[in-house]
Amino acid sequence: MSEMLQDGGNRFLGMVYGATARHSYGQYSPAPVWKLWQSFGIEEAEMLGYWDEKCPVRTSDPEVKATAYVKPDKVLVAIGNFSDQDKTIQLSFDWKALGFDPDQTVLSAPAVTDFQEAHTFQKDEYIFVKSKEGWLLILEKK
Fold first, then answer.
1. Beta strand 127-129 with 87-89: parallel, antiparallel or unpaired?
2. DSSP string of 12-41?
3. What is the mean pLDDT of the chain?
4. Is the per-residue pLDDT at 104 higher than 90?
5. Is the predicted pLDDT of residue 57 greater than 90, yes or no?
6. Are strands 3-4 and 20-21 parallel, antiparallel or unpaired?
7. Is the dihedral of CA 104, 125, 118, 94 positive or negative?
8. Does position 1 have pLDDT exceeding 80, yes or no?
9. Which residues are CB-neighbours of 4 under 8 A, at least 6 positions away?
10. Which pLDDT band holds residue 68 (cuts at 50, 70, 90)?
C-alpha cells in the first residue's frame, strides 16, 4: 500500500509514484482514482516510472513527469507538473516498445470525480498542465 500521509499529499503528483491519500484523510477522496485503477486493471500493469529508462512515455518538459502503467492493449499515463508554473507539454511515445501502431490508438482522459473532466487528445497535441497538478490519460488500441 502506498499512501501519502503528510497533509493528504498531492493527488496529482502522487499518481506519478502510484500513491494516493488515505481514504477519509484529506480534502479529496482517493476513491474515484481507485475506481479508475479498477476499471483499467492496474494490478495487471507494469509500472514504468519517469526515472526508468524503459518508460515508453516522455514529456517535452523536464519538470513535467510521466509514469506509464503498461498493459498489452492499453497504457495508463500519469502526468505530474512538479513546477511552480503552469506548463504546456507534448508527449512522446516509444511505439515500438509499446507494440502499438500509433495510427490505431486513442489518447483520452477519463472523467475522474474531483480530479479531471473527460477529454480526448490527439497524440501530438499540446497538453496544458497546471502547476502542481496533472492528468491521468489512457492510451489504448482502437
1. antiparallel
2. HHHGGGT-EEPTTTSSS-SHHHHHHHHHHT
3. 92
4. yes
5. yes
6. parallel
7. positive
8. no
9. 10, 14, 19, 20, 21, 22
10. very high
d(CA 72, CA 79): 20
Residue type, 78: A
pLDDT band per the 50, 70, 90 thresholds, residue 101? very high
Q: By C-alpha distance, which of 128, 95, 89, 123 is closest to 108? A: 123
In this predicted model, what pLDDT tens digit does every residue of 3-22 receive, in sequence order? 555 555 688 998 999 888 76
CB 81 within 8 A of CB 94: no
Alpha carbons 97 and 77: distance in angstroms, whole number: 15
Within the chain, strands assigned E span 3-4, 20-21, 46-48, 57-59, 64-70, 74-81, 87-89, 91-93, 105-109, 119-121, 127-129, 134-141
How many CB atoms are closer than 10 A to CB 90?
A: 13
**DSSP for residue 132:** T
Sheet containing strand 64-70, edge to edge, reads: 46-48, 64-70, 74-81, 134-141, 105-109, 119-121
